[in-house]
Amino acid sequence: MEARGKITLSSFNLDAAEKAIVNNLIESYRNKIEEKIGFQEIKLRLKRSKHGKTFLHEVQGILVKDRQYNAQVTDYNLFAAIAETFEKLMHEAEHNMRTKRQRKKF
């Protein structure tokens, strides 16, 4: 399944209600990331494993800008895992941009 634009999702086999929530979450983070740092491509991959009566969700994210940034989060709550993956990708890219600017000053 592929979201609009530059975000690619793989292995996201969700029901209609989950898809709607995930799409809203992705759109929100897409706008945030474009505003703060910009990006060429974002790839998200979902792995689900059954633990007892619930699923454990592992979300792997890749953000491509001037280089590739990776993040991986495992959580029982799918939406929290997606949000945390986006946050980690964003913070890593922002940190790299800040350190690049600091290196240029010297």
Detail the topology: elements first, then pairings.
Elements: E1 7-10, H1 16-36, E2 41-51, E3 54-64, E4 68-75, H2 78-105
Parallel strand pairs: 1-2
Antiparallel strand pairs: 2-3, 3-4
Tell the overall outline: elongated
End-to-end Cα distance, whole Å, is 45 Å
What kind of sheet is the major sheet? 4 strands, mixed
What strand line-up does the widest sheet have? Answer: 1-2-3-4
Number of strands: 4
Secondary-structure class? alpha+beta
Percent of residues in helices comes to 40-55%
- Based on CA atoms alone, the radius of gyration comes out at 15 Å
Runs in which pLDDT lies below 50 for 5 or more consecutive residues are 1-5
What is the strand content?
A: 25-35%
H/E element order: EHEEEH
* Average pLDDT over all residues: 89
Number of helices in the DSSP assignment: 2
Descriptive labels:
106 residues, alpha+beta
How would you sum up this structure in a few lines?
The protein has helices at 16-36, 78-105, and strands at 7-10, 41-51, 54-64, 68-75. The chain is α+β, with helices and mostly antiparallel strands and 106 residues long.
Mind explaining what this structure looks like?
The protein is an alpha+beta fold and 106 residues long. The protein is built from two helices and four strands, in the order E-H-E-E-E-H. The chain has a four-stranded mixed β-sheet, with helices on one face. Strand 2 and strand 3 form a beta hairpin. Helix 1 runs parallel beside helix 2. The longest helix has 28 residues. The chain starts with 6 loop residues before the first strand and ends with a helix. The N terminus is likely disordered.
